[in-house]
Formamidopyrimidine-DNA glycosylase
Amino acid sequence: MPELPEVETVRRGLEAAVAGRTVSGVEVLHPRPVRRHLAGPDDFAAALSGRTFAVPARRGKYLWLPLTDGDAVLAHLGMSGQFRVEDADHPDAPNTRVRFRFRDGGPELRFVDQRMFGGLSLSPGGAELPDEVAHIGRDPFDPAFDQRAVARAVRRRRTGLKRALLDQTLVSGIGNIYADEALWRARLHYARATDTLPQSAAERVLVEARAVMADALLQGGTSFDALYVNVNGESGYFDRTLDVYGRADEPCPRCGRPIRREAFMNRSSYRCPFCQRTPRAGHVRW
DNA sequence: ACCATGACCTGCCCGC
DNA sequence: TGCGGGCAGGTCATGG
């Protein structure tokens, strides 16, 4: 379950379920999710036996399970990845790809992924911050997140505002849903040119992105269906609280005019045509 | 260097 | 009922 609040919900579930537990065996049921482990599925499985998980960590949408010896299992959920914690006699969910068993004989950890854009790999020395994560920016929940500096970096770009919000190297954790929600809260159009955007507006949309993701986290994240669930298989409830995403033709909660769905960047964008008017020429970048 | 686009996958839903 | 197209919240490699 893709964006920051959903990934953080999973991280918390993993903290409760696997921290301090020692792996007894790993079973790779489909090679694709471990494709980034270049030594191959068998090596991945063998390398993890006997190792102990520490407290799971996250930056943006990347998640990693540090091992007590300083390495880490890096995970990305992609579009449809899930972690599930289930007793061994509990049947596998469809699309179960990797299974971790533990020495204590307690519940298994299963990686489930329908579309397999996500994956797992072993990151040597990655307990603190895996190399594979170093290229992305800090997310808005990071204590070292520098809102003013990120806003300046956004304004140095020559692109549309939503493209910048989705660029994980500038600020991580924001995806299609929360970008639209943040833009609506900040009353900005997705194609607003970043290079003519005032600093105050750039900071405002970052503040709103953080705020909407914090609200979502309180409700266990957003999910529209069974594809996005926490480690117990339960869905979050934030979809009921979304203001614009997925609400084409419904009234804007602020002004009552119908929300519009538009294609942008080969995906859907939702906006209020009144609260988030198309910028005048010279202030738009499609 | 930046920026935009397509590729990578499976499965569901809709209209014909 | 069956089939094709469109759609889905992710990133990454590759062009310009």
